Amino acid sequence: MTFSGPLEIGIDVGGTFTDAAVRHHNKIMVTKVPTHSRDHGVGCIEALRALLAQVGAEPSWIDRIAHGTTVGTNALLEGTTARCAFITTEGFGDMLELRRQNRADMYRLDVHHSPALVRRDHVIELAERCDPDGVVIALTASECQRVVEAVGELNVDAIAVCLLFSFRHPDHEHMIGDALRAAYPNMSISISSEVLAEFREYERATTTVVDAALGPVVSAYLGGLTTRTDAIGAPRPLIMQSNGGLLEINDAATHPVKTVLSGPAAGVQGACAWARAEGIAHMLTFDMGGTSCDVGVIVDGTPLFRSDTMVGGHSIRMPMLDIATVSAGGGSIAWVDSGGALRVGPHSAGATPGPAAYGNGGLQPTVTDAHVVLGHFVEIGTHDHLVQLDREAAIAVVGALGMTVGMTPEDCAQGILRLVDVEMARALRVMSTERGIHPGDVTLCAYGGAGPLHACSVADVVGITQVLVPACAGALAAIGAVMAEMRRDWVRTILCPLADHLTLTQVMTEMTRSAKDHDPRAAIQVTLDCRFQGQTHTRAIAWPRGAGAGDIDPLFRTEHRLRLGIDDASTPIEVVSIRVAAVCENGVTPARSQPCGPVAFGEMAIMLDGATMWIPAGWRWQQRDDGSYYAWRELAAP
Which CATH superfamily is 264-328+420-482+603-633 part of? Predict the structure, then answer.
């Protein structure tokens, strides 16, 4: 198949492989190359070159490159963020250490929070103060100069600024921010009123610190990637955000906290495209790669969002897709603990050396090796680059582990797979049962290099009866990046009674007008964070187009009753924050598939482009004309 421009390309970097997908006139092709663990940008360009060679295209034919990255996530998980200073209001220097004054684990005194990203001696308190009504202690130029000089005495590469009530009164933050940027023009400087103009000091502070601490790491990576794409004559990539939308690469480098779930978000967007095409209302997404498994949820054809998460023990408050992650992937290493019990993960063999079956010198048994021992698949890669697996090497490492617990290689392999299935089922239950969604009412969409291998067996554990494996499932995250839309979000905390329709309408109108001015082509989405008066936490309620402020009351009460089981009719509702998103919809949706083969059953391995699907006993399956596969329990309708 030969393509001609303009082309749209998506690139997704995983722990083991880097995937690239190209779309042209609704035709999609994909390729995989090994991930370069030291520099993901090298793998991106190699994948791009391989894809262009595969379809006979030139870099100048590319119209758009969309990229999902895990650089920021990995830096937080591995503790490789930049050295950071933190500037806050006098008297609040312990904010990052105190957190919310809650324990890391309710019942275990030996479990502790992750250390703050800023050392206590790198915290600088600023003599200023605002309250909800305005300035209490004015910030002076001499105080700004004192703090600028204090920063110069620290060996830091980044600065985060979060002052009390700056979400409502940002002038002091702007003043110290301007002074810092003038003095340190090459340093990563994040200001909370620019990162997250929202109430709750701790969440705003830690999100700003994460943004600053990731700045040097992510900007260096994106700068290197830009240099490489410029060198080959390709357009500069757009970057996938945690909210499932795309952002200009310069904006992503400026505020990297927006990208911490970049890679998983691309996969959910790809799964969502298939859900809409197939008319599937409710879906759980199941993305299992080489090092981790990411699970998302789609309700009524739309992925669920959340406003906060924890990454590496650090609280981040940003609009993002609702995704749960567990350390279970094809490269997860199996081992025996001190009590003689078989365990799997969280450590991974990664891309180098990888599983023993890859033949690259891996000496530890992995989930992939267990599959190879059991004959579930014999090769990996895409149709243009297949690699034969070394079954003898897999038997050797799995067998050696089995000997320590008195098991044959086959029994040990079965045990490894059962353990990893149970671990992934836990994440699926978090995203379904714990959110009031019955597993029997959803379809499991499996993708990633290892997702289709485990989909049916994990579905059995959870109680899901239908599985969809999309076409090119091994690279669905790259395809999702191709299908993603440009998106930008704004938030404003107002703490206003829902009954104050005039104020709500005025603020909403002002925010939507500003969003429309930013991009006149964008569709505007409005969401209200609502709660009953006296509650701590909020529920996000979408403001339907054309609806008035008075229409929100029944929507909130219905949502509250559905999710929490109660509705307090006597308590007034208040709006904490208004969120506005500008989304440039691209209108790309796969065509609905049709059956193209007979219904089959029995244990079987199905080779896909970039992945393998394993059908266990008790399941039926059928191929579709777009290359997708449906599988279902024998007692359930397809």
Answer: ATPase, nucleotide binding domain (3.30.420.40)
